[in-house]
Design goal:
- The model has no long low-confidence stretch (mean pLDDT 93).
- The protein has 257 residues and is mainly alpha-helical.
- The longest helix is centred in the C-terminal third of the chain and has 19 residues.
- A two-stranded antiparallel ribbon has the order 1-2.
- The chain contains 15 helices and 2 strands.
- α6 packs across α12, α8 crosses α14 and α10 packs across α12.
Length: 257
Amino acid sequence: MICALLYNCNFVGFAKGTIYQGEIKGVCVPGLNCYSCPGAIGSCPLGSLQTALLSSRYRFPYYILGMLLLFGVLFGRVVCGFLCPFGLIQELLYKIPTKKMKKNKWTRRLSYLKYVILVVFVIGIPLTMAVPGFCKYICPAGTLEGGVPLILADERLQVLLGGLFTWKTVVLIAVIVTAVFIFRSFCRFICPLGAFYALFHKISVVGMRVDEERCNGCNACVHHCKMDVKKVGDAECIQCGECRHVCGKCAISFGKK
């Protein structure tokens, strides 16, 4: 909640239907937060990366790659667990009382889809087609945080709506509905930013640690976790720390690895 407010503290933008263009807008925030959100005071790392790749034939994107590497090395998927507003939205949706879908072999297989999306839509399409693939065709955060507020605030934009916005609205609705029944469905199956941060799960500075001397291998932590983890701290772990409460040996802690 705190990060969502910090990322989007340009409250006047929501009233006026305008996008903040101040000096700090060029600074990337760690989590998924649309550049076009009226309240956003920083840039989305995924959107910035795609924009940088569009112009990579003319200049190498040192800044954005450096920022992403820094976030990855320092935090890894701690960003997913604590610093991403869209993750918060999904967790709130999951609190709606309904029958929930438990993780299984199919959800574990689907968790690899986000790596495909990272390679194809975030890297491949921008490089080969000069189009920000993920932002243009998929990103539900952009539709919810940027598209919908701007359209509601500015009637002139409503006449420009077409098939692409309809498609992205369908994607957004699908993500919202599945998030009610499946814990963090977007994070687990679709989010390429989570896929990128997952690459740093072994070397990130902070995260969940397991004291191997105390651990008795009961796997209560894995069974309790709603993500598709095979062990604490792996690529699918968002470092939320919920597993600490079910460890009978107090073998799990959060801090510097």
